[in-house]
Specification:
mainly alpha, 18 helices, single chain, binds 4-fluoro-L-phenylalanine
């Protein structure tokens, strides 16, 4: 702790712990639940390739920018941006990025906790041994029956929300470190077990072919927007979550190195989950485009036919729930940190307030899968679809775009160069071109093409 000389007392105790916490934010349902099903819905290989390009070209520069902004501002994202604007005499309007992040945080946490609730329910169901030797049909119908019961879904959603708020109330650094340090390597090991299962059942070759052989005929503009949005979602970018964590970073942490580590870990886990899940899909002859149910309709089949499967299957879902918890905590951080700065209330009270709002919003997503499944708000989107799509396809990319522009064109370049250790002119220019031109242009082009597609219908 001796190197911590800034004004905050609640710092990550070392750079390693910061990497763990940021990786804990990044690795979550986005990797294990969402990536496989959107890859399946969008035809596999070509989508995965675009996603990887988005991570490298857009995700990495935006993550570097967010961590740096947090480190420079040392406050909630809104306050950090305000501080920086004030210090450097720039329009305070840029803090709108922070306000947008607060709204996005409420939206994402509300539906994220619903899906995490499904995971919690599966922890119990797998431990009960009920799926031992179960067929694909019975696993599939168990999932549909569960979703059809608003009461059960609400119960587990509420459970997850309460646990999240409990941790948020206690403050960021405590508990989180412990959780990530042990649960992430354990998820990794169990994914290897599942991959081994896939090799054994013979589905792995087809799974690898599906995910890694690009077939561009199955790629359309919409898939590109989804890949872009997911790059933001999976790396926790565009809403200030990583920026909020960056505010607690010890001074000596290398922003660039940390970013590469997190992006690598996050991508590795998503690809492993994808490989494992599609191996089950192909071995069982299931449809790859099974949407939100994919994780829940495949993984129990694999554990159901493995020795000790009830225990390891339960453990797998428990670890996924923990991964979701460390992400959910980070989603709430920009909001909670900002409100804590603004009003004189304990962190616990603020956390409960945030939890109640998210719970109310989340009920819309709970009901989207049963009572309100026919209620379509616009296009043919349910309440859940609206929250999911608007956050991922619009709010996060827009936030990321603005963050990149702010860092490249608003903050004085001397500060950025110093913070990132860019000593040579070439490096400084290369960084500026990437974050100031390539990243924003890439986001803009994807937006414009998608908009044109909606309007002209190609
Ligand atoms: N990155 C998390 C996941 O992949 O599950 C989700 C997430 C966390 C999104 C934090 C946004 C965020 F700010």
């Amino acid at each position: 702790m001796s190197e911590l000389t800034t004004e905050r007392s609640d710092m990550w105790s070392s750079s390693f712990i910061f990497v763990l916490a940021a990786a804990g934010s990044a690795v979550g349902l986005g990797n294990i639940w969402k990536f496989p099903y959107i890859a399946g819905e969008n035809g596999g290989g070509a989508f995965v390739l675009v996603y990887l390009i988005c991570i490298a070209v857009i995700g990495v520069p935006v993550m570097i920018s967010e961590i740096m902004l947090g480190k420079l501002g040392r406050a909630s994202p809104i306050q950090s941006l305000l501080n920086l604007c004030k210090t450097h005499n720039k329009p305070a309007g840029w803090s709108a990025i922070g306000y947008m992040g607060v709204v996005t945080g409420f939206v994402i946490l509300s539906f994220y906790a619903v899906i995490a609730g499904w995971v919690c329910y599966y922890v119990l169901r797998l431990f009960s041994g009920e799926f031992t030797g179960a067929s694909a049909e019975s696993v599939g119908s168990a999932f549909s029956e569960f979703l059809a019961s608003p009461l059960q879904v609400t119960l587990f959603f509420t459970l997850f929300m309460v646990i999240t708020i409990f941790f948020v109330a206690r403050g960021v650094t405590r508990g989180l470190e412990l959780c990530v340090r042990y649960s992430m390597p354990a998820v990794f090991v169990l994914l290897i077990v599942l991959i081994g299962y896939g090799v054994h059942t013979g589905g792995m070759a087809e799974s690898a072919k599906f995910l890694f052989t690009p077939d561009f005929s199955s790629l359309n503009a919409q898939a590109v927007v989804i890949a872009l949005g997911h790059a933001f979602f999976t790396l926790s970018l565009g809403m200030g979550a990583i920026m909020a964590y960056g505010a607690y970073v010890p001074q000596n942490v290398s922003v660039v190195q940390t970013t590469f580590t997190i992006a690598f870990l996050d991508t590795l886990l998503a690809l492993m989950a994808g490989l494992a899940i599609f191996a089950i899909v192909f071995a069982e002859g299931l449809p790859p485009d099974s949407s939100v149910g994919l994780l829940f309709q495949t993984v129990p089949i694999a554990f159901g036919s493995l020795p000790g499967g009830a225990f390891f299957g339960g453990l797998f879902f428990l670890l996924v729930a923990l991964a979701a918890l460390t992400s959910a905590i980070s989603i709430s951080e920009p909001v909670v940190a900002y409100v804590s700065e603004r009003i004189k209330a304990t962190r616990a009270k603020i956390a409960i307030g945030v939890g109640v709002v998210c719970w109310l919003l989340g009920m819309g997503s709970v009901l989207s899968f049963n009572v309100w499944s026919d209620v379509k708000l616009f296009f043919d989107w349910t309440f859940f679809d609206v929250f999911d799509k608007v956050s991922q396809l619009v709010l996060l990319p827009l936030g990321g775009l603005l963050i990149a522009l702010f860092v490249a064109w608003v903050l004085p370049s001397t500060i950025v160069n110093e913070e990132l250790g860019l000593v040579t002119k070439q490096r400084q220019q290369a960084w500026r071109v990437i974050v100031g031109v390539v990243t924003p242009l890439a986001v803009l082009v994807v937006f414009v093409v998608e908009l044109a597609r909606e309007i002209f219908g190609f």
